[in-house]
Design brief:
With 210 residues, this protein is an all-alpha fold. Helices cover 84% and strands 0% of the residues. The termini are far apart. InterPro entries: AmiSUreI_transpt, AmiSUreI_transpt_sf.
Amino acid sequence: MSNVGLLYVGVILFINGLMLIGVIPGKSAAILNFFVGGMQVVLPTIILIQANNDPAIVLGAAGLYLFGFTYLYVGILQVTGVSGEGLGWFSLFVSTCALVIGIIQFTLGDTVFGVIWWIWAVLWFFFFLLLGLGKESLARTTGWFAILISHLTATIPAFFLLLGRYESNTALALGMAALGGIALVMAMVIGRRARVAAAPAASAPALIVT
């Protein structure tokens, strides 16, 4: 994946996570989704033109398209108000591809990015549950998971790559997996607390009517 593109994956995951937990309005988040989504489509196109059919380069470009189309789709939904089922089922496709790309990264010896791709697979599966299957109760869990992994899986690795100091080994991969697991548990706990806190408010009108 392009190092510059990876940097902006971090910021857009952070912004979209804030949108899902209600901190940022959808139309406000849409603008950055269009910017980053457009970049994640233009960059891989340029990369493919110059790739000389190199399989590794083509694979990296394919990953960028998965993200680019997601963010453009999010931007369009927020601006038009169209329902998100299509994006949800597309997210299932992205999640499956991320699992496969993670396996490929392991076979290529990059265990850290193998784990990162699997963490992204979990996030996009949450997008599928939320949008494709209409599990609206998972909105805050999904949002917090996106926030917690945004810089862990994208911004920080991007800076190491840009500085030429990126390393990948089993110990770092295990550390990344542990942090990803902690982020998932934290997101689920926060999401559950938010649902419990919202439950009395949801039932209040019924009590008043009674």
